[in-house]
Amino acid sequence: MAGRGGDSDAQQYDATPYLPRRGGLAAHRRAATDCQGCPLYQDATGTVFGAGNPSARLMLVGEQPGDQEDRQGKPFVGPAGGLLRKALREAGLDEDQAYFTNAVKHFKFTVAARGKRRIHKPPSLREMTACRPWLAAELRLVDPEVVVALGATAGKALLGPSFRVTKDRGALIPLAEGRAQGDGTRGAAYDGAGFVVATLHPAAILRAEDRETPYAGLVSDLRVAAGALA
């Protein structure tokens, strides 16, 4: 189990020791600032915990903070967040009534060979697994009716390793499927009902040469979530 003194190859990455035993989102957000459950905390500016309506019926889960999120300490404040908010409006969803978070709470990156630009790197399975207790706690405390999984990492954190965006996107999937596999609940009790709607991460759309088609798909998937809430 990862302790507060560092990491070694023999240790298991796990954020569980850093979670508070009681308290709401504010207590968990404060506790998360000290999380050293995996090595990602060493290079990131800080922990980026979830934000938004604490009793939201809709939760949006991304992969990890990006460069701007890491600098500002808030989720979805960069270009991908702007695109996501635009898509939410087109789908008839109110961003002020949603809760935004990520499967991994620290920014993983590499520095470009020339210059100081920080380039996103996908989190590993061990890092994602280590961070699951924070996501499970957010699910338990917010207790949303619908969770939108933005991309493969979020989908696997919620529904297990067999999740594939291309196969599972746009459908209402019971969140219980993830619990049945032992995924998405490690480190915190969460027995709420609800559904997951998987879709592309907006950052993937921004990287695409043809953004129009995948963006339309994102809006369409968000409309599935809107319909479930209605």
From TrEMBL:
The family this protein is said to belong to: Belongs to the uracil-DNA glycosylase (UDG) superfamily. Type 4 (UDGa) family.
All residue ranges annotated as the Uracil-DNA glycosylase-like domain in the record: 49-223
Keywords: 4Fe-4S, DNA damage, DNA repair, Hydrolase, Iron, Iron-sulfur, Metal-binding
InterPro entries tied to this protein: UDG_Type-4/5 (IPR051536), Ura-DNA_glyco_family4 (IPR005273), Uracil-DNA_glycosylase-like (IPR005122), Uracil-DNA_glycosylase-like_sf (IPR036895)
Entry-linked PANTHER family: TYPE-4 URACIL-DNA GLYCOSYLASE, TYPE-5 URACIL-DNA GLYCOSYLASE
Protein name as catalogued: Type-4 uracil-DNA glycosylase
Top-level taxonomy: Bacteria, Bacillati, Actinomycetota, Actinomycetes, Kitasatosporales
Organism: Streptomyces chattanoogensis
Alphabetized NCBIfam families for the sequence: UDG_fam_dom
GO biological process, any: DNA repair
DNA damage listed as a keyword: yes
